TrEMBL record:
A molecular function (GO) term: ATP hydrolysis activity
Keywords: ATP-binding, Hydrolase, Iron, Iron-sulfur, Metal-binding, Nucleotide-binding
Residues covered by the MIP18 family-like domain: 6-76
Taxonomy of the source species: Bacteria, Pseudomonadati, Pseudomonadota, Alphaproteobacteria, Rhodobacterales
Residues the entry annotates as binding ATP: G114, K115, G116, G117, V118, G119, K120, S121
Function noted in UniProt: Binds and transfers iron-sulfur (Fe-S) clusters to target apoproteins. Can hydrolyze ATP.
CDD domains: Mrp_NBP35
Region (Disordered): 82-101
Species for this entry: Profundibacter amoris
Entry-linked InterPro entries: FSCA_dom_sf, MIP18-like, Mrp-like_CS, Mrp/NBP35_ATP-bd, NUBPL-like, P-loop_NTPase, YlxH/NBP35
Self-association state and partner proteins as the record states: Homodimer.
Name of the protein in question: Iron-sulfur cluster carrier protein
Length: 353
């Protein structure tokens, strides 16, 4: 027999908040509780001042739920309201708090796209590895919270551990990786609203032991929503890289992404045209499946650098699915060399800054 939501709430009503003494239900810290058969997930959303004291409570909740009859797996995520997370009150002439620097990180590059399906996560993973091959210390933050891809792309399925009040990122292929996908069941959906998303992003930025890093690549979700706005307003971003395909519908959405970064005063470091051509595995013929040259032309119109064009090949897809990105799997292949060229252009820009 499967566990019920009522049973979970009754259990939570028997566990007290360490500071107030009230139970977790009365304290109203339980968010996004979802029970689906034997799968249970929930969020404990607390004040920043309570975050450390709530860590053992989170473990207690997870263990208690796991012990219930009918529970197959459980995931309890702790998010904390950080200073400045609430919308600023401008009615009295107050200004928003300044962006909060991420400890030990020199540069943050956001990789975004106007729409999904353009290969943004694959570009993020291979770009991070190509930058590492240039001698930089690199990390990847998977900020696509609804659809985290980096655990699969980087071939990692571990669970981060806490040390000195910070999570230790997972090491993969010579870079540091953090993703909400490490904290949740692989096939479970997250049913979170904006404030929880913002809190989770802030924690993955500031409560993770990133240092020392030369570059942190942030793999953004598609579009121009809560995660993008939270990142650009609350964190000093060195710049953004836009990923698009050559087809018109992708370029339309890429323009929106570029405009969003302009509105938030985030420099756009350049545009990458992914899936520029399809290279036939059998004969080597190149076919412009999605059109040709649209990304480069758009970069000229927008007055931003064109970083390079990447092909659509079977081996690129296969290496991504296998958990060893092509920059590591085939470092001398034509795809990896193009990523290396893009990485060098970005490194040159960072050096100039």
């Amino acid at each position: 027999m499967s566990v019920t939501t009522a049973e979970i709430k009754a259990l939570l009503a028997g566990i007290n908040h360490p500071r107030t003494g009230q139970d977790l239900i009365a304290e109203d810290v339980v968010r996004a509780l979802k029970v689906d058969g034997g799968h249970v997930q929930l969020v404990l959303d607390v004040l920043a001042q309570d975050a450390q004291a709530m860590l053992p409570v989170r473990d207690q909740v997870e263990a208690a739920i796991a012990a219930l009859d009918g529970v197959e797996n459980v995931s309890v995520l702790l998010t904390a309201e950080r200073k400045g997370d609430a919308p600023p009150d401008l009615s009295a002439g107050r200004t928003p708090p300044p962006p909060e620097q991420v400890d030990g990180v020199k540069h943050i590059i956001a990789v975004g796209s106007g729409k999904g399906g353009v290969g943004k996560s694959t570009v993020s993973a291979n770009l991070a590895l190509a930058l590492a091959d240039l001698g930089l210390k690199v990390g990847i933050l998977d900020a696509d919270i609804y659809g985290p891809s980096q655990p699969k792309l980087m071939g990692s399925n571990g669970r981060p551990v806490a040390m000195n009040e910070r999570l230790i990122p997972i090491a993969a292929h010579g870079v540091k990786v953090m993703s909400v996908g490490f904290l949740m069941e692989e096939n479970r959906a997250l049913v979170w609203r904006g404030p929880i998303l913002a809190g989770a992003l802030q924690q993955m930025l500031h409560d993770v032991a990133w240092a020392p890093l030369d570059v942190l690549i942030v793999d953004l979700p598609p579009g121009t929503g809560d995660v993008q706005i939270t990142l650009t307003q609350k964190t000093p971003i060195t710049g953004a890289v836009i990923v698009t395909t050559p087809q018109d519908v992708a370029l339309i959405d890429a323009r929106r992404a570029i405009d969003m970064f302009h509105q938030t005063e985030t420099p756009v470091l350049g545009l990458v045209e992914n899936m520029s051509t399809h290279i036939c595995t059998s004969c080597g013929n190149e076919d412009d499946v999605f059109g040709h040259g649209g990304g480069e032309a758009e970069a000229k119109v927008q007055g931003i650098p064109f970083l390079g064009a990447l092909p659509l090949t079977r081996v690129l897809r296969e290496t991504s699915d296998s958990g060893t990105p092509i920059v590591r799997a085939m470092p001398d292949g034509p795809e990896a060399l193009r990523f290396a060229e893009i990485a060098q252009k970005l490194k040159d820009q960072l050096a100039a800054l």
